Amino acid sequence: MLSLALRFDDQGRHEYFSPPAGTPLPTTGWRIERLTRSEDSGIAAVLHTLEDTPFYARSIVETQLLGERRVSMHESLSLDRFRSLWVQAMLPFRMPRAFR
Q1: Is 95 in contact with 67 (CB distance < 8 Å)?
Q2: Which pTM was predicted?
């Protein structure tokens, strides 16, 4: 798996830094496993799930990065699930979005 960590300044210049260790997040309602990066694994949390389907999930998460708490968008995609016949059979039907 490729892991790239970049920090950008106000002028658009970048510098590389070592990404923190992977931290597991709770699985989705469809049991998709998720992983994020956080300097403190105790802070990593799903704040709100926006989309939860059999092969894709989008959530707002809180982590710690570069010494500060950060809120960001997290997406998970399972192409193995997408390729499965039972998911392919459901594609013509719209999946309801997570209750807001």
Answers
A1: no
A2: 0.80
